[in-house]
Amino acid sequence: MAGLEILSPEGLRLDGRRSHELRKIVCKAGVFSKADGSAYIEMGNTKALATVYGPHEPTNKSKALHDKVLLNCQFGMATFSTGERKRKPRGDRKSTELSMIIRRTFEAAILTELYPRSQIDIFVQVLQADGSNQSACINAVTLALIDAGIPMKDYVSASTVSFVNDTPLMDINYLEESSGGPKLSLAILPKSEKIVLFQMDSRLHMDNMEKVLNLAVKGCKDIYTLLRRTITEKAEEASQFVSLTQ
Amino acid sequence: MALDGDVTIVVPGERLGSLEQFAAGNGTYSRHGYVYSSLAGLKHVVQGQEKQTISVMREEQESVVPGVGSVVTCKVTSVNPRFCKVSILGVDSTALKEPFRGIIRKEDVRATEKDRVEIYKCFRPGDIVVAKVMSLGDALSYQLSTADNSLGVVFAKSEAGATMVPISWCEMQCPKTMAKESRKVAKVQSQ
Q1: Which parts of chain A sit beneath pLDDT 70?
Q2: Domain Exoribonuclease phosphorolytic, which positions (chain A) (predicted)?
Q3: What is the C-alpha to C-alpha distance for residues B143 and B138, in angstroms, rounded to an integer?
C-alpha cells in the first residue's frame, strides 16, 4: 500500500506503538446483574462482552455428560461492529468456528469433573472489531467465568501476534491483520505456560516461529497481569463490603 | 494481597502450599505436589487431624439445594397415571435461581387410601404445589411427598382461567363458573 507502512524504519507502527507493545486494555467484571458472571473488555478499539450462566441443568437431556460438565458457547459479532455492516451476526461459518474454538479452550481450563450432568452457557459478543477479536473474547470469557465463581485451573490469557519485516508485532489491529501477514493467536495458562489454543493463518518460515511464539507468550503474561488486577480489585471490594456489614 | 491480619485474597492458578503440609479443600485442586486455587476469593486454613486443610470461599455462598426433609414449592409440569412431574421453584422461603426436577408418585400423594388415589384428581399441570422432599431419588429427579395435611396444592386455575378457592381438603371451586374441581388441597397455616 503506497503511503501506508506497517512498520516504519524507526520501529514505530501505524498507531504509534512499538512492535512489542499492547494497545490500551480496559476490563470490567460483573457488568450484568442478571447473569451469573459477566465481563467487558476493550483492547484498543476492539470491544467484547461475555456472559456466563450456570452451572445449571442441561437444557437438552440427551447431550448431558455423566462425568463432566457440558460447555455451550455462542459467539456473535454485532452488525455494527465492522466497517461494513454485517448481514448475519451469528450462525455463519466463521462464528461457528470461533464458538467451537472458545469452547475447546475453556474445556481445558475449567475443572469440568466437578459438575457432572450440568451445563455452563457462555455467550460472547463483539461490539466493535478492530483486530485481535478472538483474543479479546477469550480474555473476556476468562473474567466472566471467574466472576461466576466457576473453578478453573488458571486464568486463560490470549494474544495475537503478526510478523512483518523480520519483526514480530504484538496485539495487531485491523490494518495489520488485513495486510496479509502471518497471524498467530495464542492462549496460555500463564502459571504453567501450557498452551490451550494455537491458531495460525498465512505463511511463516519455521526459523521465525520461535521469535513469534516468544512474543505471543510475553503478551499473554502481560494481559494476565491486567486480568488479575481486575479480579483482585473486585474481590477486595466484595470483601470490604462484607466486613462492613458484619 | 493481604487485607487485615492474615486474611488473603487468592485468584485461580495461585499456588497455596505444599501437599506435604496441607490438604486440598473446596475451591482448590492439587497438581504435582502443590495445592492451587481454582476460585477467586478468600483463603481459609482449617486444622485437621494430621494436616491443615486449605479452602477458598467466596462471599456470595447462597446457592440453596433441596435436601431430604426440605419443604419445597413446585409447579406441576406433566401428569400421568402413575406419577406427576414437577419443577421445584423454591426451597422453604428461598427462590431457586434454576429450577430442579421432581416427581410425586401416586403412592406419596396422601397417607390414607393410597391404592385409591387418582393422580388427575389431585394435580393438574400448572398447579403450584407445596411438597416435602423424601429422597434424592434417581439421578434425574427428587422424590417428593404431599402425604401431610399442610402439603398439597396451594394455587390452581380452573378451566375457565380464574384462580380457584379451596373449599375442602379435596375440592376447589371456581369463583366465576362455580364449578368444582378435585385437588389435593394443602391446609395452609398462616405464617
Answers
A1: 1-4, 61, 90, 240-246
A2: 21-151, 154-219
A3: 8
Q: Give me the pLDDT at residue A58, please.
A: 80
SS3 A197: strand
* B38 neighbourhood in chain A, CB within 8 Å: 111, 151-153
**Residue B5 has what pLDDT?**
46
Among A146, A151, A239, whose Cβ lies nearest the Cβ of B59? A239
How many angstroms separate the CA atoms of A116 and B134, rounded?
A: 23
Query: In this structure, are strands A25-29 and A37-43 parallel, antiparallel, or unpaired?
Result: antiparallel
**CA B52 – CA A9 distance, rounded (Å):** 59
Residue A67 has, within 13 A of its CA and on its CB side, a CA count of: 0
Contact A56 B98 (CB under 8 A): yes
What is the pLDDT, as a whole number, of residue B61?
A: 45
Average pLDDT of the residues in B66-90: 87
Q: Which has more confidence, A151 or B57?
A: A151
- Most A CBs within 10 Å, among B38, B55, B58, to test the A interface: B38
Alpha-carbon distance of A163 to A157, in angstroms, equals 20
Cell numbers for A207, please give them.
Answer: 526459523
What are the pLDDT digits (tens) for A167-195? 899 898 888 888 888 989 999 999 888 89
Average pLDDT over residues B112-140: 82
3-state secondary structure of B100: strand
d(CA A80, CA A127): 7
CA distance B188 to chain A (A): 31
Please give the Cα distance from B135 to A143 (Å, whole number): 37
Q: Which residue has the cell 475451591?
A: B27
Contact residues for B123 (Cβ-Cβ < 8 A; gap 6+):
B76, B79, B84, B104, B109, B129, B153, B183, B184
> Cβ of B12 and A152 within 8 Å?
yes
Would the CB atoms of B1 and A232 count as touching at under 8 Å? yes
Which of B1, B3, B8, B11 is most worth mutating to test chain A (most A CB atoms within 10 A of its CB)? B11
